[in-house]
Amino acid sequence: MGIAAFIEANSHKPFGPAGTSLLERVEHSGALSQTAYDLLRIGAWALVIVGALLVVTGLIQYWGAPLGR
User: Fold this and answer.
1) Fewer CB within 10 Å: C terminus or N terminus of the chain?
2) pLDDT tens track for 23-65
3) Does 21 fall in a domain?
4) Residue 40 contacts residue 5 (beta carbons within 8 Å)
5) Coil, strand or helix: which one is 65?
6) How many domains are there within the chain?
């Protein structure tokens, strides 16, 4: 999920400074605002970190499980 969020963020990068005209914003309507872009990237990192922690926790449980279970 985190990787997909990074891909989505890259496909909707902000296009310029905040002071651009309304006409320029309409032409680039697929672009996110800088705040939304930053929040999407923060969320993507959070998902990647949580996923990595789940994998590590699962490996630790698997390693500590008795054989022949």
Assistant:
1) C
2) 655 555 678 888 989 999 999 999 999 999 999 999 999 998 8
3) yes
4) yes
5) coil
6) 1
